[in-house]
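Could someone model 2-acetamido-2-deoxy-beta-D-glucopyranose with this protein?
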Amino acid sequence: MYVLSPFCFVLTFGLISTSHLEFMTFGTNGGTNCAVCTVVLGLAEQLSVIHNETVVKGLERICYFLPDPYQAACKDFTDFIAADIIKVFSRDDTVDTACHKLSFCFTEPYSEMCHIFPIRPKQRLQLETMQRHRPHRIGANICDIPGIKRICTWINDIFSKHDPAIDLDGDFHSVYQTLRGTSWRGKDCDDERKAFHPGAKPINGDKSVDSNCNGIYGVNPATGRDYEEELCGTSQPRGVAVLGDSIGAHFHLPREWFNATEMSLKVFEPLPFILENELDWPEFSSTTAFMNNTEKFHDVLHGPIDSMYMRMFDRNHCNHRDYQNIAVNGARASSMADTIQFSLKRNVTDDQPMIVFYALVGNDVCNGHHDTFNHMTTAEEMKNKSISTLNFLTKVLPKGSHVFFVGLADGAVLYKALSDRVHPIGSLRNDVTYSNFYDYFNCLEISPCLGWMNTNATIRDLTTKRAMELSEALKEVVTSHQSSFSNFKLYYVENPIDQVLNEWTKQGGEAWELLEPVDGFHSNQHGQALTAKAVWENLEKLYPDVLGPVNPNNSKIKSLFGNQGGYL
Ligand SMILES: *[C@@H]1O[C@H](CO)[C@@H](O)[C@H](O)[C@H]1NC(C)=O
Ligand SMILES: *[C@@H]1O[C@H](CO)[C@@H](O)[C@H](O)[C@H]1NC(C)=O
Ligand SMILES: *[C@@H]1O[C@H](CO)[C@@H](O)[C@H](O)[C@H]1NC(C)=O
Ligand SMILES: *[C@@H]1O[C@H](CO)[C@@H](O)[C@H](O)[C@H]1NC(C)=O
Ligand SMILES: *[C@@H]1O[C@H](CO)[C@@H](O)[C@H](O)[C@H]1NC(C)=O
Ligand SMILES: *[C@@H]1O[C@H](CO)[C@@H](O)[C@H](O)[C@H]1NC(C)=O
Ligand SMILES: *[C@@H]1O[C@H](CO)[C@@H](O)[C@H](O)[C@H]1NC(C)=O
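Reply:
Sure, complex below.
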């Protein structure tokens, strides 16, 4: 079953603030509990058809795919629920009706019955009548079920903290990969000395040790000069960071986890790693990707890799490891200003300058509430909160830095691109389209973005209108604060995702090819790589100073220092 909690996060990232996350307990009509039940049982049912076995056996099969400790939890869950499943799952049932009988889903008064798979009208009527005449029970919380509880707590913990968990010297750079470690920020080269971290100005010329973790240190015996000085001294090194949301962090749920015909032991192998990174893939994201897809992820991540950081490194090898991904699923202007931004670490005097992208792509207009417009950020609030962030940045960014406000994307493209396509959860019978999927999430009030993921064109258009107002607000802040900060220059740029999708479709591509298939909301690996290229080319054209000069010593650095200590 554990498959499922990840699934909930899809639903949650639009809603939750970063300080607390009660991922199993929101929505109506059963909310996330209902969705978890439906997706898990839906997959179990499809497996049971594929393998000609019972639904309970299908569920056991899912457990078998999972690595420990999820496998054990899944088995406990199956033991707990098996008898009930056998009791309620009759020949006439669909997964939706079974989950209603199991009370994970219910139908509030004056509400329609929520379902993702097709359902016969007669059955719907029966269920609705049955439920209306019975106070709905329990409100079973899946996280209270034996075996699952432990894992829910653990996951909740990961998903509510966004600073490196393992960081002995408190410089916010770690030697551990996940839990906001090196996947997110350059690896520390000495986790016991706070002054030693990626992006530092070299201490004492790095004559004998590497203090800025770029792998360059020592003295050239031929000239008697420090290598840092000789190879990097005039090269104007700088780091790159994103203050962002799930797009910046590169949220990605493997399609193979939700397609009954593709599930296997192999595709679940990296599950623990993926959860420890909050279902995000910063190491392959458009701003901070730093490595090629490794063998480890070939089965669950597909597409080319490119990033601002990789290009900054290619330009100047002295920038090695100087990246920070400060992006959190669900982030919006308020959570950014109130908490998330403080995780960006830069010392105004002792570190190199930085290029910072403030990229909140949509959560300010995205939520799952039926009265969605009342929960959107207003233009006034957008200004207020983005200015708070600038006031913070002026305290931490070294002189010579650059800050880009990135406009919101136009999420109306999602519906256009996906509505009639089949969602992975309907793979066996091709019976679930994204329209069905959107309606279902909206019915449960757990959509990451009811405004855009909506079959009602009026609602989609109004959401786009608000997004444009918020972009306009950011633009105004940039204009009015043009000369307010002495340590960085401030710019506004349109959201590159719109540009990427336009160019892609103009060249004959289809928009869905650049979108995440499971959540139907994010750009996928290919989209991330094209975004990096678009941003880079725009900067090269409009603001080449931002990128700094090409270092003529790059090949010398490579021959002297190899891979400069690598990344992991
Ligand atoms: C499915 O399994 C049942 C017994 O478990 C068997 O009678 C039936 O022939 C099987 N069907 C197929 C298509 O293999
Ligand atoms: C990634 O792989 C591509 C193709 O194999 C190669 O050209 C590129 O140099 C690699 N990049 C890094 C950072 O290893
Ligand atoms: C920046 O570094 C200097 C020297 O190491 C230190 O005194 C100062 O406290 C640091 N500033 C911050 C904000 O950490
Ligand atoms: C934002 O609004 C709050 C409350 O009105 C106010 O105290 C704060 O100074 C404002 N911040 C900015 C940066 O305008
Ligand atoms: C599910 O997997 C099968 C087999 O790989 C594939 O052909 C199909 O397109 C997938 N379905 C979806 C909706 O992704
Ligand atoms: C679409 O949404 C608008 C605004 O909420 C509403 O007035 C309209 O009735 C809806 N249209 C349909 C077909 O549901
Ligand atoms: C290193 O680059 C500088 C310019 O930044 C150049 O003047 C110098 O000749 C280069 N040194 C070597 C060893 O290539």
